Amino acid sequence: MISLQPDFCDIEIPEKEHYSIEDYSSSKARWCSGCGAHTILHSVQKLCTDEQLPPEKTVFVSGIGCSSRFPHYMKTYGFHGLHGRAFPVASGIKFRRPDLHVFVITGDGDCCSIGAGHWVHAIRYNMKMVVLLFDNSIYGLTKKQTSPTSPLGTHTNTHPTGSVLPPINPIQSTLGLANVSFVAQTVDWKPAHLNATLKKAYDHPGLAFVRIVQRCPIWMRENYEPTVKDPDAITVLNHENGIVLEENALKKFRHIQEHDPSNLVKAREVAELVKTTTPIGLFYQNKEAIRYDEYGAHNLGVPVEDRINAINSLMDKYAI
Amino acid sequence: MSNNSETIKSEPVKIKREQIREAVVEIVSDSGEGAQKCGQSLGTISAKMGNGVWTVEIIPAEIRPPARSKAGASGIRVRMGSKKVTNMGDHADMVVALNEQVLYGRIDQNAYKPGTYLLIENKWATDTEESNAAYTESIQKFKALGYIIHEIPMEKECLKHVSDPRKGKNMWVLGLLCNIYDRDLNIAAAQVKAIFSKKSDDIIQSNIDLLHAGYAYANDNLPMHFTIASKVSKEDFVVMNGNEAVSLGVMAAGIEVCSMYPITPATSASHAMAEKMESAGGLIHQAEDEIAAIGFAIGASYAGQTAVTITSGPGIALKTEFIGLAVMAEVPLVIVDVQRGGPSTGLPTKVEQGDLLAVLYGAAGDAPKIVLAPSTIEECFHYIILARKLAESFRTPVFVLTDANLATGVQPFPRPKIKSAWFPDPIDQSKWEEGVKAYDWDPKTGLSKRPIPGQKGGMYTLTGLAHDEESHVAYDPSINQRAAESRSRKLAALHKTLKEPKILGDKSGDLLLVGWGSTRGAIEEAVERARERGAKVSSLHLHFLSPMEPGLKSIFKNFKKVMTVEINYSDTIGNSLITEENRRYAQLAWYLRAQTLTDIDCFSNVYGQPLSPIQILEMLEKKLDLTLTE
User: Fold this and answer.
1) Which residue of B459, B468, B472 is the best one to mutate when testing the A interface, meaning the one whose CB has the most A CBs within 10 A?
2) Which ipTM value was assigned to this complex?
3) Chain segment B278-288, per-residue pLDDT in tens
4) Do B283 and A295 touch (CB under 8 A)?
5) B503-624: same fold as B18-228?
6) What angle do CA A227, A228, A229 make, to 5 degrees?
């Protein structure tokens, strides 16, 4: 490539900044040692670097919980708000700011329990943003209470003899929502798949919902250890339009299932695999779904004169 | 009264008119009969003629209560005068009732007095056996109460012009009232045209015919005819209700995001702007719930465009956690609370000033915020513009407290001339100054400049956790104390800029009434009337409730007694078990007692009705032991 010298022509060539991974790293993460969130943080920082996202144009919005500390560890803009309420805040940020890259960091309690109403509607708004559901199936910050995704019979401090209700399947639930446009699942301990999933989600023109099955070594070690160690526990969903792994990476998985992510009915069937295995990959994608952020940005920058005229024409209705 | 006149005379009989200073007129009916449109038109016509006007809707709680039910009165009250009118007045002088049953509810509310004219649709005398009996019984009762009854064949008269009298009877009634009160028939016809501007010429003409027919009927058949002096102003005026004023205020404040969830009586504030909001460069976001509505607004504000959320008491309850976050993280935001009767679902369509303390203190921990209370329709407009500026200057949420009385009350005011200075600057995307922290609290004022996403070098993570100047989570206990002081100090800084409230009447005396919000017109009229009769009473009206306007304690010292007048609940000493020690006061009274260490009394109730001057005068009679009413 020819490099342009400053005196190459009269036009002032802006100095193109290159961002390295350190440009996205803030204070040291305070998650427990062995927590899956550390690898996700690294993978997100890698995505930012790969995509060269200007840190000042990038906003991480979270709720409350272990995972929601995430924005504090990024050197971008961040919004660490209320339990369950990351979606409305992120939607409000994106509504009139198409220039911002918005990420939502939420957990299983945050998204699927206290914020479930917003989850339903955020999917329907389908505003361009990446949503990462850190699902460790337990309330960690408050010390081991049953989460809406805890497997039936999980021993917790609120259900010492085992939880009594079947868990929500966040993939299946999201696939059932109006205007859904991107649903994927990955696990925190398969970095190649995690990275590829984040990249696919970032490129999606709409709301990309990614459930990341996440290890909690403190409260849920016995739940995750078998999955992490057992090479039969994971099934990779494979398709040219799905999350494409390099051949070498794909070879590491024993179970591979072909799944076309344009097929919503099939996606719902595949989502049921959760009962016997952990399916990872892209369940569903529709790049044509209506986007509320496009509506939000459609009348930006109306000149003040025109605004005053519009107000005056409304005021005329009340004139006497 | 019987009607023998079957034809409209082309030359109206010359009638004598009694000159009056003002009149209070009501039109009541079942829901959906157009009474409100009739009254609004009468108000607009009068405002155009240069009269002072206040109109207020009479709203049943149900969308469609059963026909001819006693509690189902839907309608409107119009008060028109030769001078400026600031409230709904005392008892009605003239009532048009499309059926007699709906009058009972209004009579229970003490809306009428002996001598009030009741003009009643007489078709119910012959409609069905059941209605006939009820009608006859009611007329007897109303006569016994001293009302002057005119039974009028409204439907029969309308049928001469239209086949379906339910459509258009209201315009016939408008004509009737225009004749009784000497309203300009040309202005009236223009108003009818304006109402039906989207309809066909035939519909417009038939409604104008009805207007003329009603006018002629009153001219030929009714004995009472009045005239109210008026003076047409050279200034341009607009006439609207408080929600419409809020709506236009939002647009004129340059607010681009109005994030709301439907709730009575606040929703119409969003309806009013809907038509033009997009061409005025903004959008309405109807959120999935009240919590999401404020969360979305906070998101938009955080991203650089100060947003507004409009709600009522139950919505405020749901939004409270987010309000705490906006205070803690210092996000500018405008929150409009159109108060209604509470607690819980309460009285959704009725007025109450019951949210003051909830708004001031309803949060976990200490959450100081700015609270404003407009007292007129005009202020509903201008206070939104003020609120956005304050929110941004002080980096904090600002409440604007209106209520159902302001929301539906209609009053003319000088047409605001929209200024470009009311609009915010474009979102600051300049490079953030190096070394300046995200919360660089000024040690004197607590104020700080906020970085906005997109500003290079300004990156920080906003958090609801206790945080230091750099928005880092506070692990050092001294940080929380310092941060709380900084947020509180902002109110003290604003307080420094406020002026002492003006006093209506003398600066000392036997009694000072203190009000806030929509009660101003009634309080001030009562005080003026009492002073004409020699009472040593004055009043002041608060517009800033947080921070509180300065100088109150020394003002209070000059009066023997100080008392708030509010529309919310307070115990009355003398009622069962209620003593000085356990009495629970009206909300402003609690607050002023705490702020000024003054023994402040209160007069308040929760009948869900706007206060009338006569109610306040009757209270003053007892307090001051004077005769102030006839």
Assistant:
1) B459
2) 0.95
3) 999 999 999 99
4) yes
5) no
6) 95
